[in-house]
Amino acid sequence: MSRLTVAAVQTSPAFGEVAANVAAALAAVPAACDLAVLPELFSTGYQFRSRDEAFQLAETLPDGPACTALRERAADSGTTLVAGLCERNGERLYNSALLARPDGSWERYRKVHLFWDEKEIFAPGDLGFAVHEACGIGVGMLICFDWIFPEAARTLALAGAVLLAHPANLVLPHCPRSMPVRCIENRVYAVTADRVGREQRTAMPLVFIGRSQVISPEGERLAGCDGEHPGVAVADIDPARTDKQITPRNHLWRDRRPDLYRL
To answer: Which member of 135, 144, 175, 183 is catalytic?
Structure first.
């Protein structure tokens, strides 16, 4: 596996301004990048007042406007893109992520662990945690609050993920400190793409913390953004660093004792 260039794109979307949000996010994707991750719900904004409002802004995959723009950009640029979308599937809504490859193929993930008022809007994800080949490596997708459940990252790592693509809209402060732990305990890379800005469309104001980052299998912050401004964190990664042989006599998977775990 050769080295890859990856990016976390940090944006500041305006609620409901889908075309402008998509254009701004795609304009920020760096050239000559193998894989770029955009935030959760990057095209719509986050704080829906009702399920009906979310339904009006949701789109079907893969032919909705933001999804189409992502697929076209991937094809034109040669960059694999991962981005969070409000997905409509029949009468159900999902907080989803799309993986768009340059060859036109695509994958989806539906957020499993819904956060706070998301439970009033979205159905829980029903696709599980799958690993997809992209850029010659295994890529697993998580969305925002999935980070707090170590079982999610471990499931993807055991299935062969080399990199965790993690669109997010973070409001709690802990994720930037926790993702290095997820990477260390699974020997994987992680690309968390968060947003910045503030939304107060209900009684509860939300301030998004930014701090998008690329984390190495040793927990190093290879690149990152601040907590206030749009930006891009770009890093070169070496997939060979995800080898599970920790010492000559310790292997991350072979030393596991599932017979003694109570999960």
So the answer is: 144
Q: Where are the domains of the chain?
A: 4-260
Give Cα separations from 193 to 94, 130, 258, 261 (angstroms): 19, 19, 32, 32
Reply yes or no on whether 175 is catalytic: no
pTM over the 0.90 mark: yes
What CA–CA distance (Å, rounded) separates 237 from 220?
12
- 20-29 burial code (b ≥16 CB/10 A, e <16): ebbebbbebb
Q: Does 33 participate in catalysis according to the annotation?
A: no
What gap in Å lies between CA 220 and CA 78, rounded to an integer?
27
CATH class, domain 4-260, is alpha beta
Report whether pLDDT(88) > 70: yes
Q: Which of 111, 118, 183, 225 is catalytic?
A: 111
Q: Is 111 known to be catalytic?
A: yes
Task: Point out the catalytic residue in the list 40, 59, 87, 118.
Answer: 40
Tens digit of pLDDT for each residue in 13-42? Answer: 999 999 999 999 999 999 999 999 999 999
Render pLDDT for 210-258 as a digit per residue (tens, 0 to 9): 999 999 999 999 999 999 999 999 999 999 999 999 999 999 999 999 9
